[in-house]
Amino acid sequence: MERSTSSNVDNSSECLNPNVTRQCQSYFSTQLRQADMVNFTLYFESNCPDCKNFFRSQLSPNYEKLSGIMNLTLVPYGNAREQKSGSGKWKFTCQHGKEECIGNLIETCAIHLMKNISSYFPFISCIENDQFAEPQDSAEKCAKKLGVDFKSIKECANSDLGNKLEHEMAVRTDALSPPHKYVPWVTLNGVHTEDIEQQAEKDLVKLICGAYKGSDKPAICGEFKSTRRCYRY
C-alpha cells in the first residue's frame, strides 16, 4: 500500500527533524488527549420525561464545557420494541406512543445526516429541553431556530433509510450488557453500574472530570465540589 504523503506526522522518527518539532508536539498532544478521552454513551427515548430532565439538568448545560475530554454518543431508542413486518421493514412500538417513535426517528436521522456531534447535539438538546410539545413539533421549532435543514431530516425519518438507521439503534440498545432496565441509561467507557448511573444523574461534571486521566482538565473540572451544602458564615 502506498504511504500517504499527508502533512500529518505519523512516524515518531520524523520528529527528529527540527523543522517539524512544533508539528510533532501538536500531533502527540492531540494523540494523548484522544487516548485519555472519556467515552460517555446515553441511551434514551425522545419523549421520556426523565430523559428530558437529564438533558435539561446535566447534559445540555455542561456538554460544551466537557466536550474537550468527553466523547459523547447518543442512542435514541430507549424502551422501544421492534418487529419485522412482512414487507421487510421494521415496526417500532414506543413507550410514550407513536409520537415518541417519530421523535426517535427524527433524532436518529439528524445524527446520520449532520454527522458531527457539534452540529447535531444543539438540535437534539433543543428538542429534549422542550418539556411540553411533541418531539416532531419541537424538532420543527428547533430546526427553524438553529437553521437546521428539517426537510431532509423529515424525509429521512419517513424513508427506508430512517427505518434501517433506527433498527441499528435498536440493535445497539439490545446488545447492552447488562441489559438496560430503564432510561436514561448511561455507560462510562463502555461500563454501566448503578453507581455510575446515579453519579451521572446527580453530577455529570464530577463523573466525567473524575474519569478523565489527562493532565489538561478544562476549567469546569475545578469548579465542582464534593459536597453541595450552604455552610455557615
TrEMBL record:
GO CC annotations on file: extracellular region
Compartment annotation: Secreted
Pfam families membership: GILT
Chief location category: secreted
Molecular function per GO: oxidoreductase activity, acting on a sulfur group of donors, disulfide as acceptor
Keyword terms: Glycoprotein, Secreted, Signal
Organism superkingdom: Eukaryota
Keyword Glycoprotein assigned: yes
Family membership: Belongs to the GILT family.
Name of the protein in question: Uncharacterized protein
Species for this entry: Pinctada imbricata (Atlantic pearl-oyster)
